[in-house]
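Whiteboard transcription, Tuesday session. T.W. wrote the structure tokens on the left side:
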């Protein structure tokens, strides 16, 4: 795998690949790093489940009662 980050100064790019890439399928992806960082930050928004509110104060879990048949 080859990963290179560069600043482009024109719209043409030539890639030199290793010999072991010959005859194999290669995927090339180009994107602007600033866009990826802003999209990742917006996707990390925490989800809250405010539709249901339960008051669990004073509740204690009884394993034997839960497994009782």
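and on the right, the sequence the group agreed on:
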């Amino acid at each position: 795998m080859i990963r290179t980050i560069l600043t482009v100064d024109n719209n043409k790019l030539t890639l030199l690949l290793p010999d072991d890439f010959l005859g194999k399928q290669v995927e090339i992806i180009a994107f602007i790093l600033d866009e990826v960082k802003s999209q990742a930050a917006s996707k990390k928004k925490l989800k809250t489940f405010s539709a249901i509110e339960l008051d669990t104060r004073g509740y204690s879990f009884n394993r034997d009662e839960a497994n009782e048949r």
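Someone added at the bottom: The chain has a mean pLDDT of 82.
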